[in-house]
Design goal:
Blueprint (H helix, E strand, L loop, with lengths): L13 E3 L5 E3 L7 E6 L6 H12 L1 H6 L2 E7 L3 H11 L4 E4 L4 H5 L3 E6 L2 E6 L2 E5 L5 E5 L7 H9 L1
Parallel strand pairs: 3-4, 4-5
Antiparallel strand pairs: 1-2, 3-8, 6-7, 8-9
Length: about 150
């Protein structure tokens, strides 16, 4: 599994969102995309990150960005998360882990001395040409959208 970097072509994917609709990255060609990977719905860090994107969603849209969140949770979990926090963007249900693996964010992690596989919180800014413009691997969950707005200024 290769680690993607700035200048690489973003891997296309097709998966369902929280509404059961099929989403492909190629549907967004011609647009800037914030593709953010997070470990789990409705956990403190992931909620802070999603709400940061929600609270600044109009600013991001006005700068020409679409927001897509990805985790390995299923559609039902995503729908509950979206409804609870009024999230205005797509959440991709990557239960078979094809998207996290394609982006190199399915990694070995450790907690309390145990190792396990999980999603590394990472954000990719993808240009209208499908090329990765920025990779944020040290995501500030409470200020995740501001990190992006700072990169754009």
């Amino acid at each position: 599994m290769a680690i993607l970097k700035e200048g690489d072509k973003a891997p296309d994917f097709t998966a369902n969102n929280q509404n059961g609709e099929t989403i492909s990255l190629s549907n967004y060609l011609g647009k800037n995309v914030i593709l953010y990977f997070y470990p789990k719905d409705d956990t403190p860090g992931c909620t802070a990150e999603a709400c940061s994107f929600r609270d600044n969603y109009q600013s991001l849209l006005s700068q020409g960005f679409e927001v897509i969140g990805v985790s390995t949770d299923d559609e039902k979990s995503h729908k509950k998360f979206e409804s609870k926090y009024n999230l205005p963007f797509a959440l991709i249900a990557d239960h078979d882990k094809t998207v996290v693996e394609a982006y190199g964010v399915w990694v070995e992690k450790s907690m309390y001395g145990k190792t396990y596989m999980g999603t590394a919180r990472t954000t990719f800014l993808i240009g209208p040409d499908g090329i990765i413009k920025n990779v944020i691997s040290k995501v500030d969950t409470k200020n995740s959208s501001q990190q992006i707005l700072d990169l754009l200024s």
